[in-house]
Design goal:
Length: about 130
């Protein structure tokens, strides 16, 4: 990999995140709380296995997966789904929800940032993080 993926990232900004949560059927109160968080994210990589830890003042969520294999995960919206994640090129993790392949997310890594892009039901949101 030419871009360093592992490391700690701090929240910088978000676009359209509230609308994204709304179409994901997240209730208004929880949506407002989630949209107000400014998480730190730690990305670890060992062989084919990734661990992505999201840390907020409310809770810590760990996503552990092996590239190319299905796994179950609740992204903090109290909704467990099955996902599959692959590595595109040397700097982008691409994830699809198994029961709805149009629900996708990607995490693109640069030397300085991590940019999460989430799409579902025609709504796209981004959250940007700086490398700590």
């Amino acid at each position: 990999m030419t871009v360093q993926i592992t490391g700690k990232y701090t929240f910088v900004s978000q676009e359209n995140f509230q609308d994204y949560l709304k179409v994901e059927d997240v209730g208004m109160i929880k949506r407002n709380v989630l949209a107000s968080t400014k998480p730190d994210i730690i990305v670890e990589f060992d062989g084919d296995q990734f661990t992505i830890t999201t840390i907020t003042s409310l809770k810590t969520i760990k996503m552990i997966f092996t590239l190319g294999q299905e796994y179950e995960y609740d992204p903090g919206i109290d909704k467990m789904d099955t996902y599959i994640t692959t590595l595109e090129g040397d700097n982008t993790l691409f994830t699809q929800r198994v029961d709805d392949p149009s629900a996708t997310s990607s995490i693109q890594f640069t030397n300085d940032q991590m940019i999460m892009t989430m799409t579902t039901k025609g709504v796209t949101a981004t959250r940007t993080f700086n490398r700590a």
